[in-house]
Amino acid sequence: MSQTSPSDPLAPDAGIEALPPPEGPTQIIPTDYQIGQDNIEGVKPVAFDIHNPVFMVSGIAVVIFTAATLLFPTVLGPFFGGLRDVVTGNFDWFFLIAGNVFVLLCLFLILSPLGSVRLGGPEATPDFTLTGWFSMLFAAGMGIGLMFYGVSEPLGHYTAALGGPVLENGARTDWAPLDGAPGDELGARRLAMAATIFHWGLRPWAIYAVVALALALFAYNKGLPLTLRSVFYPIFGEKVWGWPGHVVDVLAVMATLFGLATSLGIGAEQASAGFHFLFGWSTALTAKIVLIVIITAVATTSVVLGVEKGVKRLSEINMLLAIALLLFVILVGPKWQILTGFFGNLGAYAGDLIPLSNPFGRNDDNFRQGWTAFYWAWWISWSPFVGMFIARVSRGRSVRQFLTAVLIVPSLISVLWMTAFGGTAITLTQGGFSGVADAALELQLFQMLSQLPLTAITSFVGIILVIVFFVTSSDSGSLVIDTIAAGGKIHAPVPQRIFWCGFEGLVAIALLLGGGLTALQAMAVSTGLPFTLVLLGACWAIVKGLLAEKRELR
């Protein structure tokens, strides 16, 4: 494997080896496979180093699906929408059980002796500082989700819980969590925050952590390529380098690209709504396309610079802006309610954790299927992208440090964020202001900020955060896709990074023009069901792999 020359100022991550061998005693998996052995390389007219057949099959499949969605919107839209409803409606119990398994496994590994195993070998050192590492974890994981749902979800759950159960023909038609809290403002607030934290706390981060840990372990400690197929080596053996592995990697590329394209379209809608709210700018389709082009251009620049110079720096800037906005809301909002609410909401979450985690004997079908199962399927469909990126930047961390940073710390920050933004919106609503609740989903953040001082400044910062969070998701996602499509090579030629970043933007624009984003989101969520089986298999592989590493260290 070649190493980029440190003397080249345009080289991504100059001087950093693409995939260093383990440092210290580890259990290397013996295989004759060499990273990139199936690749097709060339230098003219542009440099390329692509895996055969993952690159071609992925690209063609994406083009075919996008074209079909545009040509047959009235057929594929309802089809994928119905498929999503079948998946979340009939397998909600499976998603809930799987989410519980992922959390319990992560907590077990943190507390067990297996947590001392170091990713990359016992003598490996981290590639990134703690601040840079954590910034990238959070920005790629779900920073944009907190911007989009930080106000709307707690408020939505509060309104539904306050209304309580609504029965029609003996069945509940409301969206309240559990049994709601009819007429009880304090009880509805506690239940709403508990439900929100349940969706944005330990479960989604455990999903990401399982994928990331499995990839990092088999790449950095076992010597296999940093692609999703490597996790299945204990199951398929050498066959994983053939079509079983090709299928896994193609599905990972498609899930990542479609998930990012969907988010680009949704992000363009929220940013466009924010600019209209602040400056009166148009929210027409053309404005949204321009935003996608801008986001893609900035993401492409970041991708060209690489992880160290591009993604890391952008993520750190974004985290500083997010922290500044969070502190502002805490200081000028109902600060006492926010500060005390943080601990109160954690208590509410702990109190309702078992009922919310219970997959059986509940009657809150709309909430359990339309919210929880939908979220679990969405997080799982995103897990190849986020998990691989987390693995990419986490070499040198112990399993215990890795899981603590990926699972515990982001969950606590999510609780504080939802408490500040969602709690402020609920307080405003309880005080008689209906503007937030009556606003469209993409405008609720800006309506909440309009009731605080310095509205123009904070709203503009909010718009910038929305855009930059999408940029960091786009650039990190493009790096992940490029790694998979290059057969596990982290330092594939720069033109390939540019290709995937631009391809992602073009797919988002095409689906936005053709009205296919909803169908695409439904399709992405539907892939969560088979990927759940993949993750459960990864749990077994992680434990087996860590036990072998622990024995090697004795």
Question: Would you write up a description of this structure?
Answer:
Pfam families: BCCT. Belongs to the BCCT transporter (TC 2.A.15) family. It is found in: Cell membrane. The protein has 554 residues and is mostly helical. It has one domain (46-553): Amino acid/polyamine transporter I (Up-down Bundle). The chain is 71% helix and 2% strand. It contains 20 helices and four strands. The protein has helices at residues 54-71, 73-90, 92-111, 130-141, 143-149, 152-163, 185-200, 202-221, 233-236, 243-279, 285-332, 335-357, 365-392, 399-430, 435-438, 444-449, 455-485, 494-514, 517-526, 528-552, and strands at 39-42, 48-51, 167-168, 171-172. It has a two-stranded antiparallel sheet. A two-stranded antiparallel sheet has the order 3-4. Strand 3 (167-168) and strand 4 (171-172) form a beta hairpin. Helix 5 packs across helix 17. The longest helix has 48 residues, at 285-332. It is globular. The two termini are 31 Å apart. The model is unreliable at 1-17 (pLDDT under 50).
List keywords for this structure.
554 residues, mainly alpha, Amino acid/polyamine transporter I, two-stranded antiparallel sheet, two-stranded antiparallel ribbon, 20 helices, 4 strands, 2% strand, globular, disordered N terminus, membrane
List the helices and strands and how they pair.
Blueprint: E1 39-42, E2 48-51, H1 54-71, H2 73-90, H3 92-111, H4 130-141, H5 143-149, H6 152-163, E3 167-168, E4 171-172, H7 185-200, H8 202-221, H9 233-236, H10 243-279, H11 285-332, H12 335-357, H13 365-392, H14 399-430, H15 435-438, H16 444-449, H17 455-485, H18 494-514, H19 517-526, H20 528-552
Antiparallel strand pairs: 1-2, 3-4
Helix pairs in contact: 1-2, 1-10, 1-18, 2-13, 2-19, 3-8, 3-13, 3-14, 3-20, 4-11, 4-17, 5-17, 6-7, 6-14, 7-8, 7-12, 7-14, 8-13, 8-14, 8-20, 10-11, 10-13, 10-17, 10-18, 10-19, 11-17, 11-18, 12-14, 13-17, 13-20, 17-18
Transmembrane segments: 54-73, 93-116, 128-149, 202-220, 241-266, 278-305, 317-336, 373-391, 403-428, 448-471, 498-522, 528-547
Membrane topology: Multi-pass membrane protein
Pfam family, one: BCCT
